[in-house]
Design goal:
By secondary structure, this protein is an alpha/beta fold. It has 15 helices and 14 strands. A 7-stranded mixed β-sheet has the order 4-10-9-8-7-5-6, with helices on both faces. A 4-stranded mixed β-sheet has the order 1-2-3-13. The structure holds the ligand Cc1ncc(COP(=O)(O)O)c(CN[C@@H](CN)CCC(=O)O)c1O. The ligand Cc1ncc(COP(=O)(O)O)c(CN[C@@H](CN)CCC(=O)O)c1O binds next to helix 4 and helix 5.
Amino acid sequence: MSLKMDKSKELFEEAKKYLVGGVNSPVRYFKPYPFFVKKAKDCYLYDVDGNCYIDYCLAYGPMVLGHANEKIVEAVKKQLELGSAYGCPTEKEIILAKEVVKRVPCAEMVRFVNSGTEATMSAIRLARGVTGRKKIIKFDGAYHGAHDYVLVKSGSGALTHGHPNSPGIPEETTKNTILVPFNDEDAVKRAINENKDEIACVIVEPVMGNVGCILPKEGYLKFLREIAEENDILLIFDEVITGFRLAKGGAQEYFDVVPDIATLGKILGGGFPIGAIVGKREIMENFSPLGAIYQAGTFNGNPISITAGIATLEQLDDKFYKETSRTAKILADALRELADKYNIKAKVYNIASMFQIYFNDKDVVNYEIAKQSDVNKFMKYFWGLLERGVFVPPSQFECCFTSIKHDDEVIDKTINAMEDVFRSL
Ligand SMILES: Cc1ncc(COP(=O)(O)O)c(CN[C@@H](CN)CCC(=O)O)c1O
């Protein structure tokens, strides 16, 4: 079976003349060429060759209400007629900030920015400024955006395309970034003891969504909370993926562990560019203009992203969480059953609306083990699904997501496609 992709191929050839790799983000690039999207609606993407795909990538996470959600479209259309960027504060920023504070346990104050990258970059600067310490601890394979502090052994596209340690970043910057394996308590204890009183923060994806889907071991996040507390180290939860996804209050609600600072993005913008740093008042008030730690941005808190964010959060009700978790679990269970039925070595992980399969026979608890997965088999699985009208992120080191629009009929179709693919793996 092969897909008709002539128009995408043509566009890709043209795109490569002007855009590096024909794309504007490396995760969208896959060989021989990606499909180009014409439009999207609910849980479907439609490409320029007329193919329709059930979408489990959801633009790498934001589109949990489905594409072109009516309420978001309506609200943004109205706002557009009132202007899109003022360079002045608006009431809507207060409204969304209050909604975030209401939901996110560590959030007493908010600073809106335009991406998860900006959020984690600013959060780390905040932690360094507040503590007067330089070093940070990050986990092997974690991806916190494309900035210098964290592009060290990072996941997502950096890992997929073979450059987890990006060139172009001075050693003077990365020498302050201490790497430890996820789910390993002794490694964190050693790192802290060897860098006594020099560590500003530990930054962690509570669920690692950039090396697939790696869950924290029982008690691990609580351990991080306690050891950070004991050593006057700030704990940062990077919830750009998990925020508003695992629960209304994200991972910190789901696991009942409250960090000092959290970073948010993706879902919060309802399909528009956004990021946020949230945390306790006495920490956040160190940001300019009250404090000396500079953080700024032309489109910070812009009326369009904020309007979309308000329209999004008000739709994330109990039914949303119940339904998106239910469908993701059905898919994860189906993948496990198919791996058994067709005798394929695989491990499947799922939490709330997140899931991923690893073609691996070991329990995937960290980056080292994730990297041992059969990525060629994964890409066979990817293409097999795509040819059957199902789009999962084109990398073993990304995560799949369900939206409220993935109903039982869509799930059944997906499972049929999965079974067809497993027959040929
Ligand atoms: C946990 C976490 N923290 C920070 C970021 C960076 O967010 P952005 O700058 O892409 O908005 C991300 C971004 N995720 C990737 C895909 N897993 C974005 C996709 C892309 O780079 O195009 C993230 O997952």
